Each structure stands twice: as C-alpha cells, then as structure tokens.
Amino acid sequence: MAPLVFPGRARRTGLAQQGAWLMALVLLCGGAIVARLAWLQVLHGAEFRVMADENRIRLIPRHPIRGRLLDRHGRVLATNRLTYTLTVQPRLVKEGRWTSLRDRLARLLDIPAHVLQSRYAAGLRADDFQIELAGPLTTDRVLRFREQAGQLYGAEVAVNVLRHYPHGPLAAHVLGTTSSITEEEYKRLQPQGYRINDRIGRSGMERAYETTLRGEWGGQQLEVNAAGQVQRVLGDKPARPGKDLRLTLDLDLQQAAERALDTVRKGAIVAMDPRTGAIRALASRPNFDPNVFADGPTQRQWSDLNRPEAPMLNRAFQGFPPASTFKIITTIAALESGRFKETSTVPTMGSFCYAGQCYADHGAFGSIGFPMALAVSSNSFYYQVGLAVGPEQLFKAARRLGYGSLTGIEIRDEETPGLLGDPAWKERVLGEPWTPVDTITSAIGQGAVTVTPLQMARLYAAVANGGWLVTPHLVEQPAARRPIGLRPETLRSLRLGLRQVVTEGTARILNDPTLPPVSGKTGTAEDPPRPDHAWFGGYAPSDDPELVIIAFGENSGGYGGTVAAPMVKALMTTWFRDRPRPLPPAPAAR
Confidence class of residue 8 from pLDDT cuts 50, 70 and 90? Predict the structure, then answer.
C-alpha cells in the first residue's frame, strides 16, 4: 500500500528548506560584510583614514622668504626679490585637457612644451596641488598671460621669491649661490621639508648656513569634494622666514679689496682681525655675478663661468707657492729649534754654492741677522739657515703655524689644505729620496710647498697677536684660538724684521705717514714658463695690530713690492684713513 502524501506538509518542508538556505546566505553575506568592515575599520582603519584625508584635503604651499646676509654693520649683502612663476592646479584641469592647455601655454609664453610636460609630470608624482611649470617670467610674458587668462583655466601666474645680490659680483665667492633643487635631492631632502620647486644653497655661506637661511614652507589647507571643488579653508599656516645672518665682512673694506684686485687678472685678498680671526674682507679674481643663478644662467653665461680662468674658483682657498713669505717659517724653525739665537748673524753673498751647485741671490748684504735678512729678503741667508736647521724642523714649524691643514672656516667644502712636500711626501709620491737641494729651495718657499692666502693670514695673525693660532670665521662667534708657544725672542726678531721690510726693505711703498706703522713681507714666486706670482702679507698698526691683510696676484708678473703691496696699501687706506670713525661719546651732563 503506497504511503499517503499530504501536499500541505510537503510545501511547508520545502519552504523551510528554502528559508534555511536564505538565512544561511544572509548570514554569509552579513558575515562577509562584518569581516570586511572589521578589516577596514579595525585592522586598517588608521591607514585608510589618512588616505581619505589626503583625498579630501589639499595644501596650497607658500614659499618661505630666505634670510638675508648682512655685513658687520647690518648693511645688506644678499636679499630677496619678487618674481613671477607659471603654475597649474591639476584639480582644475579636466582629464584630456592638459595637452591642449600645455600647447597653448607653450605658444603664448614661448616655452618648450617638453619643459612644461616634464615639470607637470614631476608635480603629479609628488601629488602637488599646485605645480610650478616655469619661472621666473619676464614682464612681457606676465602681460601676455594676463591678456588671455580667461582661456587658460587651471593655470595662473604666481608671485615667487628669488635671491638677489644688490652689489652684483662683490664677495660672490663668500656669499655663494642658490639654485633649484634637483629631483635626486628632492627625494633625499623631502623628509626635511623641502619641496620639488624649492631652492637650495649651492656654495659659500648660502650653502654653509642653508638650515639657518632657508625658513619653513607654509600654506593653506583646503577641503575639496569628489569633483575637486573647494568646500572650505581648514587652516592657514604662514611660511616661516629664514633668519638673517650677520657676517664679519666690512662692506667698505670688501669694496676696497674688489677695486684693488682690478689691477690683476687673477688673484685674491684676505683681510682679517688677528685677535679673533674675524674675516673683514675676502675677495677672489676673476669673480662672477651670483644673480645669474637666481634666474638660471643662459648657455652663454654658463660658458663664461666655465672658461679656463675659472671665475668660480675661490683663490683665497687654493694653494700657491709662497716664495719669500715662507722665510717667516724658516726664521721660526731656526730660532725655536735652538740652532740659532736672536743675535745670530750669517754671511750673505750674490751666489751661494753648495755640493757643486750654485744658487743666486739678488745682492750681497754682508753678515746680517734675522731682522735685516727679512727686510732685504736675502736668499743666501736662508739657504744656509735652511741647511743648518734641516727639513724636519722646517716642516715642523710650518705645521705648527697651520700650514698643510684646513683653517676651520665655515666654507670648509671649498677650502684646500695646501701642500707641504716634506721628505716623506717626496718618497711616497715621487719615489725619490730627499736631497739638500730640496732643503735649500723649501727654505725660501720655492720647493714642493703651496700655501693658501687664508693660511698665510693665520700665520701673520700669529705673529701680530703674540703667538696665537686663530680660526678664521665669517660669522661673529666666540674666538677659537690656541697658543703655539713662540718664544719671546722669536716674536721680537719677527716683528722687528717685518717692520724693517716696510721702513727700509722691499715694501717701502707702505711707509706712508698717513697710515699707522705697517709691518709685512713681500714674496715673488716663480712659476715657469708662466709669469711670477706676487705676494704681500702684513699687519697694522705694528705695535697693536688690528688688521692683517694678504694680497696675492696669480701669474701677475712683477714683484711682491710692486704688485701686491700697493693692493694692501689701498685696503689699509680704507680701513685706517677713509673709513668713517664712530663719534666719541658725548660728555656727561653736569
């Protein structure tokens, strides 16, 4: 007998099964939704919140104003000027419209389309809300843009700030240059707050004090909707300007140094306070106008900057043969080693012969001591002194006075240590043993010895200040100096000799009654087959020195007394005679 089937019950069973399946499906979907929400909100909530804010919030950056460079009296050496740049806001340029906008801008402003495209692509990669396409723009380009601004929606001309050097080439090697940051630098410096269209110090004090001068970017925070339309301003952060930097340079003396160097094609001048190491003037020739880097040098300007004369090379930091100025070192070696006394004398002659070889002198002065030997710059005197002292003591004295090492000035990346070609150097580099000929030539500064004008300023400062080796510096700071322990008799001989150089020796041009007493030493360095180098180093007043000046003419021809000493006189005149003096304090009221 077949089982009985109740249609109502079967229908209810089917409906129950369908309900179960539907409930399972709802639970499965609900579980997936909950799991997805948990993944989004719990596991990755913070991450997606940041992404949402980045999509919702845009920043329009504001350039910081770079700090100024001032001279010791607050006179402006480097400042800023307003300029115009072409920018575009990608949010306002609909997809596919950029190409036509780019081409229109290229034709209107005469800017290569590939340049605009490159800047635009770089800005997109950096997710910039406002991208700098070109600049600085000439006044003519700005006017052309504004005439057709209504047809260039999304692009605008923005005000920018560029570096400006009101005195042109003056002190260019000290002040330095700035230029746009490169893409590689941007990747490295972005965590420090730099932007793709930022500028950075490239040389000189602009580079050495970049973190002080650059300031901090500011901007407006804008809230935008999904279409990129601005809804409201969320915040406004003013750009923080960089700090002004007061240098130790004296504008009047720097101008005098630049004028003095007009007499040579290549050379350098360093003027320094021997008591503290504060640089009062530092000039190099040929020089350049740092303003060309603000706008970006043209091809012609770039070629001129890279000509063989190397105008961007700071010759005050480069080593050159010191010639007779090195006789101060030989004097120190002789007296400090104990081989000679303050009263010692040595016979001089027109030709000194040793080991079958003869070495010329420009005169025979009889038997003389160290002061007169410095005054007349007797080579035969120092040939004999050098042989008696030996290379070990000679180069020991040179290192003691800072030769062969960096001075510690802030622009350290551009400074060279010079060269002290001692016996170890000759053996290592040339593979040859030291000979008496090397000692003879080194004793008068004509061997494998090079000295920078800045190092020489330290040497003369040590004699002037009583035996302290100062650290040259361009920003006022506590004086860093160390004693070198010169004997009183050594200092007496040096000071007497350097004064006699001016009163009765090779630099009588500086024996001027309108100036305070000046002391110093001339030098003429051979550089065959090119013309000679000319040197003079000196200080004044002789009895209480407040200024050391080193003048150098590279391949200038002539002598130290005829080429370099007149340059020093020009600076001495400016500092001691022509410079405005502070008024004496008013008498107290009674």
Answer: low
Indicate whether 232 belongs to any domain: yes
- Burial of 290 from C-beta contacts in 10 A (0-12 / 13-18 / 19+): buried
Distance, CA of 180 to CA of 463 (rounded, Å): 44
Facing residues of 269 across strands? Answer: 283, 551
Strand ranges for 130-228 from DSSP E: 131-134, 155-164, 178-180, 199-201, 218-224
Q: What is the CATH number of the domain that holds 225?
A: 3.90.1310.10
Q: How many CA atoms lie within 13 A of 292 on its CB side?
A: 15
What CATH number does residue 530 fall under?
A: 3.40.710.10
Same domain, 269 and 406: yes
* Confidence grade of residue 181 (pLDDT, cut at 50, 70, 90): confident
Q: Specify which residues 161 forms β-bridges with.
A: 82
Q: Is residue 40 part of a domain?
A: no
Other beta carbons less than 10 A from residue 146's beta carbon: 12
Q: How far apart are CA 190 and CA 164, in angstroms?
A: 25
Q: pLDDT band for position 588 (50/70/90)?
A: very low
Q: Is the pLDDT of residue 50 over 80?
A: no
121 Cβ neighbours under 8 A, 6+ residues apart:
none
In this prediction the pTM is 0.81
- Residue indicated by tokens 């007499």: 263
Q: Where are the alpha helices (DSSP H) in 148-250?
A: 172-175, 183-189, 204-208, 210-213
